[in-house]
Amino acid sequence: MALDLIAKIRGERQTIGVDIGHYSIKTVCVHHKRKNYCVLAMDMEPTPEGAFVDNEIQDEAKIREALIRLMTRNFPEMSKDDLVASIGWTAGVLADKSVAKVPKNGNEDAIVVQTAQAKPPFDDQDIMLDYQVMERGEKGEIKSLVVAAKNKILADYSKLFSSAGYKLTAIDVDVFCIANAYVATTPEDRLAETVALLDIGEKKSTLTFLHKGEFHSVRTLTAGSVNSVVATLSRHLGIDAATCHEMFEKNDLTMVKDRSVAEVESALQLAFEELVNSVEFGIRYFSSSESGEKPVRLLLCGGGANLPGICEFLKQKLSLDCCILNPFMNMEFDPAAVGESGLSVALASIYTPALGLALRKF
Rounded to two decimals, what is the model's pTM? Predict the structure, then answer.
């Protein structure tokens, strides 16, 4: 990459984010400039069928082969770039806020972790804890966001990358990556807003709440994934999954043979109702914990953000401003990264988690 030598001379970093999903493996490489970011590369590779289930690696060999193809194609000569991957929230990740009192000259790290481990579910011996300080009080109180992940999941990811010949700098969580992409690219005067980030994945969807610019909570939605939409369309229109995905990618509702556009729209809306109900429940739960406050905006990302009419449907049903999250909007791009046509909003939503990884501050 042309900027690689310049980055080394200036002491600037380049970070590669890798997001492994049920449908595809995505990567984004970002050059960290002093006042902005520049996207150097972005690409994806299909996830082998059955190799990644419920956000867990089921067939390491197949995923390793796909990962090597993706990385070799884009980074044939990896140097000392930071490499970050993410595990899925729905793979059993836990998060909660904890307050620890640390005396002067006390071991902050040990005290924060011990305080968290004193109560379930963080007292489990088969998990690894990490934390981020959110607020420091004058009397030694430290408010932290404590996160726990299963040791087995972390070990599986480390083994995958190591066996492929790559060394991970860090492992993050997908919902935090999306939040990071939003926070890192949103104007400062809007960060104080309370927003909800809806990641509509192939098999799972999550709703992440940011309150006054900080992570608040996450809810895993019981319905509303791309797969559930496909299942509804298949049942009501008699079409297979391949036709559904082609229709989504082309945003062409006329593709369904012997069905009018009105019939296809009706089936889509029926499928979207499940998602609306899940999001509505999640927002009510958030509001009950914040004295009735509601998000001012719902931002969509993930492959399902591009489902035909989903944004307008959610906006109408929830009476809430709704748009697709596009953290790439104000970024610089290396010409080779996206080509002359640029980056579509549809692709931006798919690459958002990988971008959040590449924007990670160490």
Answer: 0.87
